[in-house]
Amino acid sequence: MSKKKKHALHNAQHAALRTPLFHQRVVKAKKGKGSYSRKGKSSRGQPKAA
């Protein structure tokens, strides 16, 4: 394999790793550590009944 082809393959591999498929995702925990939310569950914009 020539040096130029090897370099092109290397760049293609790096480009593939930069796609959104390999980006880290932040997932908010629903239960357990990190699940506390200061805002309560909203009732879809409805005012509270008095």
What does this protein look like?
- This protein has 50 residues and is an all-alpha fold.
- It has one helix and no strands.
- The protein has one helix at residues 3-17.
- The longest helix is centred in the first third of the chain and has 15 residues, at 3-17.
- The mean pLDDT is 77.
DSSP E strands, number: 0
List the total number of helices: 1
Strand content: under 5%
Give the % helix: 25-40%
Structural class category: mainly alpha
Averaged pLDDT, please?
77
| Low-confidence spans | none
Radius of gyration: 24 Å
Largest sheet: none
Order of helices and strands: H
Shape: rod-shaped
Distance between the termini: 77 Å
List its traits.
50 residues, mainly alpha, 30% helix, 0% strand
